[in-house]
Write a structure and sequence with these properties.
The structure is a single chain. By secondary structure, the protein is mainly beta. The chain has six helices and 27 strands. A five-stranded mixed sheet has the order 22-26-25-24-23, with no helix packed on it. Helix 2 packs across helix 5.
Amino acid sequence: MSSSPEKKKEKKLEEELPSTPQPNPTPSLPDELLTSCIARLSRLYYPTLSLVSKSFRSLLASPELYKARSLSFRTESCLYLCLESSSDSRWFTLCRKPDKTETEDDVSKNKKNNDDVSKNKKKKKSTSYALWKLPSLHSPPAVFSGLVSVGSDIYNIRSSSNVSVLDCRFHTWRKAPSLPVELMALSACAVDEKIYVAGIHGESLKNASKVLDARTQTWDDVVSIPCSLTRRGALNMRSVCIDGKPHVATDDGVVCYNSQEGKWELGEAKMGSFRFSDSYCEVENVLYSVYDGMLRWYDGEVNVWRSLEGLVGLPKFLPGVSVRLCDYGGNMVVVWDKNMLSSGEKKILCAEIALERRGVWEIWGGVEWVEHVLTVPIGYYIVKALSAMV
């Protein structure tokens, strides 16, 4: 029996009306107390909590929650990864899988030595990491050199002059003021909530520099890199912040911007070898990169590239493997891929490394964990890994 016209009108009206606020996920707790409790949890657990119910998803996306995290000093570095194929861009964030319990018997059942059978009934927890895809997010195309994080935002600056911002609190995109001019071969880095962008003016092929103040959302001119320091139209630019100054490495060497004097200066030429790949990052004023499959480091005190010691459990990266490095709250995250040609898929692997300075000439890396965190079609490649404070 078909519905009456009146009922159809009522149903249509209900669909058009805005949805009512979600009820408290746990009605036995006041809203303020529940928000305060979740604000104290690491954000690594939020993707799992979002699966509990629509009410939890609503709470996890509320401004009140992130205000509570800020007031209780619970903001933390959150890892984000951009992958891209010929047809789309995808963004992921690092999370922890739910704890699993297993008996020691399950772990040691293949061991030949059965002398400790009496201990096998104890239980232990094992926690692993995974990359969680940001849901229902239309992501604009991105390139490594145009992605930079400031606070809880990730800026996507493109040569077409468009600037998009990923708000990592709510996983939404918004527009930022466009570049005043179109720049080719642009490269960006952030210093004190200011984003410095160097590139080539599309028409004149002259070097150009702009700076975006993330607080005021306004663009300002920066004196262009003079031809006396680097030739006109240098197409291979890579930017990084060292010693509180934006540095740009080109085929002609390294230049850095002195904001106090408002001019570009020559930097240390030895530093510039990192420009040959996208496998580099800065952590606590030290530049790290991958060379010949191994991790190395450079800072202004030593002025020479040195190998990162330790790294027990981290593989040597074979030629053709895409590697990305990222500052992760003072540690370093390494992300790399592994093609599985038989299945037409690609593994994304991730490791967190604790860094320890030992005197002037040595830095040691301790591998905290290594995980296979994601599997994607083989056509995807890693654009960049970044961390945002959320």
